[in-house]
Predict the 3D structure of the following.
Amino acid sequence: MHKESELRPPLILGDKTWHDITEDVCRPTESKANKWWWLAFSVSVAALMWWIAAVSYTLGTGLGVWGLNKTVGWAWDITNFVWWVGIGHAGTLISAILLLFRQKWRLSINRSAEAMTIFAVICAASFIVTHMGRPWVAYWPLPLPNQFGSLWVNFNSPLVWDVFAISTYFSVSLVFWYTGLIPDFAVIRDRSKTKWRKRIYTLLSFGWVGSAKNWQRFEEVSLVLAGISTPLVLSVHSVVSMDFATSVVPGWHTTIFPPYFVAGAIFSGFAMVQTLLIIVRKVLNLEDYITIYHIDMMNRVILITGSIVGVAYITEFFIAWYSGVEYEQYAFINRATGPYWWAYWSMMTCNVITPQLFWSKKLRESVFATFVISIFVNIGMWFERFVIIVTSLHRDYIPSSWVMYHPTWVEAGIFIGSLGLFFTCFLLFARVFPVIAMSELKTIIKSSSQGAKAKAAKKSSTSTEVHI
Amino acid sequence: MSAKDKKFVYGLFNDDEVVLDAVSTLRHKGLRVKDVISPFPIHGMDEALGLDRTRIAICCFIYGMLGCSLALLMTYYMNIFDWPMDIGGKPSFAFYKNLPAFIPVTFESTVLCAAHGMVITFYLRSKLLPGVEPNVIHPRMADDHFVMAVQVAEDSDRANVEAQLKSAGAIEIIK
């Protein structure tokens, strides 16, 4: 069994038993939703309706309904795509990389973070498909035999790499998440009182019985999936960054992009996990499982990745000057002092300054401060992608082509609507799926819960034996 | 095995350490402990039960190699052999020259095949599929109870096995 010092902060508050975990995690799936859930759900569905309307209008009329022009051919769509994919990265980091590092605090947050990954990648994919303009030919980037010769896709192109990276990432994250859910669906199945409920959860649990062999395989599969998801998640945002870095656009053509994008992805992803979990722990009464300690640990990740991002911004600026390439230099001066200065300085404030506040332990452990800063980080990371994409494009090599980019209500609708899509999915998830990985959390109750630690401390203080 | 199966005696436990010790004790006494159903993985249970190491990671490696080879073959066939294109003065005429640009797709394909191959193998091997009816021996075996299955040759052995299970810490014998 896993042993842990009593001095480490407990990961589960109170004197919980295994059955308490089952009760607390299954309760939201077994009771009626409260008015706060319905309120949030209504707002999300309303935003989702706007998304449907804006996407339908775009696809029915054409991309001319967006604010794109000849100079700025990529804007909000790709900004939103990169933003959403980045958010997804935290889920995989928590469930894969923290598993390899044996960080037990991941156990109460990995399920909802992975769900966030899935929904974020769905939102991201929607921007690619709408930007294609003709989604009925969305299969064209796939290497399929066709009637043009066959004229194959170009495997030298980062856009084709991206198709492979995103689809692999989505499908592997989905099976990783689902495999972890199977034993927990079995718990809900065995507790079901009504016939239909039992039937649905029997279907979802794939007939799981926790026999020794099943658990042995389950653990091996989880470990190996974590091992292969780790390079996968790092590759995905690297490939996304190469969509930019392999082009010859000033401001994009830099070798720092892959690590800088990955750090930014984890940074924004953890901020989104904080935003979501601070609400979830309150609404679903899971404060004993998602504790201040968990929030503190995630804030430390935000602090370190935020600092990496800050260093990357400064490095980019330095290299632009040091390269001696006047186009590169202009691109960066234009970012900071040109017509989009407000976007640049919003990015700098939200991403470089706000995370540094987390050096203070008081702020790291404050739920309110964490919530506010996490929102700032999300805004800052959105601006980062906007700055990289739009400010690099809007003033290209020929000054006669210089323009400004103005989004239309349709683009705004697709962006706000994608938040609606995301929250609708997440709210449904929170009501029908177990939001905490029960079977995994139960393994640490004897070592890391407050009750167990108190007992162990009492025992060691009263015992007079000397252990060698 | 089913709950009605007379060839098994099922002991119910309520602690993971007790059930783990009981497996070793009962196996030492010569009882045929076939399985322990638990709500979470118990470390050391596979050794205690004498289970073989799972070979699923080896499967994963083979699927990964397969995915890697397929991707190399695909990029070679499509971009070098079948229709080499010269885009932006960067021709695709030799595989070894283009290989660096094919690495991302090769890597993703390796991961795709390794992950899905392994998970599908796991589902099929453990008979986990939508529509499979589980054998729920005790309603709380996925919640906080542990079920030990001991095989008996004769019905006359049942009383002896039940007594041994009780003495090893079972709180109840499931009838």
User: Anything to note?
Assistant: Chain A touches chain B through 69 residues (CB under 8 Å).
